[in-house]
Amino acid sequence: MAKKRILITGSNGLLGQKLILGYKANPIFELIATSRGQNRMRNASGYRYREMDIANRDSVFQVLAEEKPDAIIHTAAMTNVDACELDHEGCDLLNATAVQYVVDACNQLNIHLIHLSTDFIFDGLDGPYREDDTPNPLSYYGLTKLKAEQIVMQATCPWAIVRTVLVIGITEGMSRSNIVLWAKGALEKGETINVVNDQFRTPTLAEDLAEGCMLIADKGATGIYNISGKDFMSMYELVQHVAEYWHLDKSLIKPSTSDNLGQPAKRPPITGFQLKKAMDELGFNPRTFKEALALIDSQISEN
Ligand SMILES: NC(=O)c1ccc[n+]([C@@H]2O[C@H](COP(=O)([O-])OP(=O)(O)OC[C@H]3O[C@@H](n4cnc5c(N)ncnc54)[C@H](OP(=O)(O)O)[C@@H]3O)[C@@H](O)[C@H]2O)c1
């Protein structure tokens, strides 16, 4: 029987790299990893890498027509929320227009599209959210990701939308950090850090997110799925857990409010997700936050 072909966009990113590792461990799939520029994973065996710029319609159509995957996991996006607030044009191009290119190609080739979205489509007034709650984004990033969802929902190919929350983890050549690595690094250097206590999330280990995407691809599932961690906490509590886990000085962590940070993009105060649908329909079972930290710790030690 022919192997199922999976194509990943944004394979140099945090989720992209975890998907590569997840699929490599399961060789019943043929994997094609794509991202912009060179492959940043040192070990390039067990899959093929192709450069693909999602902002270039011809590049998307050419690669997808040549590879004809059964499913595509579309992780590539402009993911820096503040950069999106300062560059609307760039954010529109990567987070909405490029999604239209991917959808058009998937429609033409009847590819199962698994598209990554975010808790930032919500206003954060009444999380943790269910899949059918009403979006109301506060930031430009959230607005473009909601636009992308609407584009995906119009697709004629089979589609799934995977919404996730505050992804944590470590991988090679990361283009941006995340709260766990940032807090650990700063506290190890003895720096005082201000952390908001008015934003609540269900932080998501990148491996668990990859697992959720793979379950959807494997089952050919369609519709919207919440895929996140299961532990709900404030950012302040999250950083306290980081300090406890690595035995760092908790007195360096100062509680702050979102208004005090003065970041360009507004963040939704209370998000996080209810996971019943993904657990019941997909068998999704994420790690606890402590187990997530333990895995990150073991990966830091390996390197
Ligand atoms: N991280 C979170 O906390 C979070 C939360 C909610 C939802 N999400 C969503 O989850 C998805 C994956 O996030 P992530 O954390 O893995 O993000 P990430 O680490 O920033 O990865 C995104 C990848 O997309 C690549 N990319 C950007 N522009 C591209 C282009 N024009 N063509 C091809 N590739 C391009 C980036 O390349 P470079 O590395 O070269 O820049 C990067 O490797 C995104 O759709 C994001 O919106 C993330």
Outline the structure in words:
The protein is an alpha/beta fold. The protein is 41% helix and 18% strand. It has helices at residues 14-24, 57-67, 81-86, 88-109, 140-153, 179-188, 206-219, 235-245, 258-261, 276-282, 289-302, and strands spanning 4-9, 29-35, 48-51, 71-74, 112-118, 159-164, 167-168, 193-196, 200-201, 204-205, 223-226, 233-234, 253-256. The protein has a 7-stranded parallel sheet with strand order 3-2-1-4-5-6-11, with helices on both faces. A two-stranded parallel ribbon has the order 7-10. A two-stranded parallel sheet has the order 8-13. Strand 1, helix 1 and strand 2 (29-35) form a beta-alpha-beta unit. Helix 6 crosses helix 8 (235-245). The longest helix has 22 residues, at 88-109. The radius of gyration is 19 Å and the shape is globular. Bound molecules: NADP nicotinamide-adenine-dinucleotide phosphate (NAP). NADP nicotinamide-adenine-dinucleotide phosphate binds at residues 9-10, 12-16, 35-37, 53-55, 75-77, 79, 94, 116, 118, 164-167, 175-176. NADP nicotinamide-adenine-dinucleotide phosphate is lined by residues 9-10, 12-16, 35-37, 53-55, 75-77, 79, 94, 116, 118, 164-167, 175-176.
